[in-house]
Amino acid sequence: MVMFRQGTCTPSVQANAGCTQKLAVDGTFALLLKLALGGFKATEVRVNRIRESNPPVVLITGTSSGIGRACATYLHQCGYRVYGTSRQAPDLSQVDAPPPEAFTVIPMDVTSDTSVATGIQTILAREGRLDAVVNNAGVSLIGAVEDTLLEEARFQLETNFFGVLRVCQHVLPAMRHQQAGCIVNMSSMGGLVGLPFQAIYSASKFALEGFSEALRLEVRPYGIHVVLIEPGDFQTAITAHRQIARGAQSTSVYVRRFTHARAVIEANEAHGSAPERIAYQLERILRHASPRLRYPIGSVVERIGLRLKQVMPSAWFEWVMRWSYRLL
Ligand SMILES: NC(=O)c1ccc[n+]([C@@H]2O[C@H](COP(=O)([O-])OP(=O)(O)OC[C@H]3O[C@@H](n4cnc5c(N)ncnc54)[C@H](OP(=O)(O)O)[C@@H]3O)[C@@H](O)[C@H]2O)c1
Question: Where in the sequence numbering do the catalytic residues fall?
């Protein structure tokens, strides 16, 4: 993040000399002032609309377990009107209304255009609006790059990246029309640091990082905020649901190092934080009039790790990573 700030602001000023430098500084100042004023305007709009929309309507994808379920449960308890999703959920027309203590669950597979379109239309038809979307649904693929089939890699990206794109494309028209909304994308610290034997998972989350950073700039004039949550290790069903690359067999040349790395990954998840911690942070983000782009959430060690990547020579950081995953 620090690198991003330096890269966008400092060089544009340094690149100009003499009187052009003053003009550039004035121009930059004017641009910053305009952005700030624009930001305040957008903030006012969003705060007012959220107040009008009482309770706010929130869609969270992938709420049958883990982070999604914790977030949906907590927001429901806080008084939000929550729609969760599961690929296994029956159609709303086939079930009774949920009891007051439970949030509503609709069927949705984020890899299917029809399923996403139907789910979002169902919510808009019932509520007339959608204030926030949490793109949480995700899967995790593990295995050496060489042992991973292209179809396995495609499925990973189809869920973790194209799934988010699909949902965004279906909710943005409604949010633009409302002139308000918040899209929260569940990334990962693996979207900031490449994780060994999770290269395709990391690729899907790195893609999500760039996508969200860019989308945020596009939709800000419509009062829509785009936010990334970047969890470290959390105790969820992700470990049990994880897909292992079909080529990761005992005959693989990577088997010894893969086995070490997998043991570290699973141990870290087993000792990870409770997903309720993310739920609490999510609610604060949704209440915030002007949320930041990135919210890394994890242990102190994980957050120090992220910082080290920014400040350490890359060869040293790579050594730390190989040591952490028992790959030395
Ligand atoms: N746990 C961690 O340590 C950790 C760390 C960093 C980031 N994350 C991210 O957090 C998010 C949630 O993960 P989790 O740890 O809570 O895992 P989880 O317990 O396995 O939950 C994954 C959820 O995603 C849903 N899902 C999977 N494929 C789907 C699809 N094609 N369409 C719709 N829903 C789908 C599942 O619902 P159904 O199977 O019922 O459809 C399930 O509810 C993921 O994006 C993950 O990458 C997790």
Answer: 64, 187, 201, 205
